[in-house]
Amino acid sequence: MSGASVVHGMLRERGYRVGRQLGKGASGTVFLATTEKSGREVAIKVIAGGGEVRDAEHRRVLVANETTLSWKLFHPYLITVFETFADTEFDYVVMEYVGGGDLQPYTTPETLLPLAEVLEIARKCCIALGYASRCGVIHRDLKPANILRAGAGEIRISDFGGAIFRNLDKSAIANFGSPAFMSPEQIRGDNLDSKSDMFSFGVVLYQLLTGQLPFDAPDSQAVSFRILYDAARPVAELRPDLPPRLAAAVDRALAKLPSDRFPGWEAFGNALQPQAPADASASVAEADRENLRELGIALFDGLEPTELRAIAARYRPWSAGDVAVFQPGQSDIAFMIDGRVDISTRNGSFCASRGDIVWICGTQPQGALPGGFQPTPSARIGILSLLDLCENPALLGKLLPRLTALLGAQSKRAGGPETGDAGQLAKALVAARDQLVRVVSQLDESLRN
What we know:
alpha+beta, Transferase(Phosphotransferase), domain 1, 3 domains, four-stranded antiparallel sheet, 16 strands, 40% helix, 21% strand
């Protein structure tokens, strides 16, 4: 039996119908597939023991990273991994299918995207990579082929197989990455922080804006030499029509020394965005804010437009289905966007519908019995990480008291004691807040060192 037949047979047993090949790289081959039960489209990465990924340990780390980080990182601009599984010959990673392809086709002088769209892509990448950085995750392989286009200005960053956590992951694959996009410190094998990813993303932007690589050369060894010792040709020389501050921001991201780059992703994103046309980023952000406001979520009532935009940029929608797994972390808020969820607790049952808060701090809805979380097939839930909101203490401070009151009211709806449960929720939320502040402080300190 051929390798392809084995793969297709295994996936059929798991309930997937395999379609066309979407792409192939060093970490595996990606296929389009549909679920037998619902016909929903997904992308499935198949990682083989042979071929370009020869080392079994290499393969194990790739899949372990995809699995672990899919449960740690929840963000609207990061790819969603639904499940991973393995047989004796292959490992499989099932993820959301993004139909627009990746950014690689838009990296030649003849195929460049409009400036406004590049800036919107850059804004969202900086937000997502800032979130990953605060979670202690370093991607290590940012390139156009790993940024998927979900629509005009809409993106998903994919392929966290080579990522490391706060540079403490001793099982990480050494020298992982694509040579043309590696930072100088990555090439040298130094300890890495988020500024290594910043350099790589600077290379991505340089290519999206000019259609050229800043350190191009005939082979990977020559590319590495240029990254280590040669200055990139200034962006303005290749694109004199670009706003000077935008060109300067990309040049700064490509500085040889990490200390000469931006202090953080927010500063990088801010340096890029003022150069967009007046209505480009603002119109998209305003539409996101308005969509969130229209949900009628009591938790967000009366927030300032800038606060609603901050939330709209960070929550991740989840849809009920046979593939998607409800994957909140230990300190997340979940709220109903559409549909309904029936929740059973020790004290009774109730139905959560549009605008309701359904979950906080745990692995299932607060107080729910095992199996007591039953979404309808059409249910859509927004997941918002409290960890991601720690960068905005004022907003977090507004939301925590509201969460206490809303979850207390939810407990009362389910027939629970009004005061006792609310008091316990208040204590849990305060403890979560204090823990989150400590975690973020430790991550920031680690990144600075």
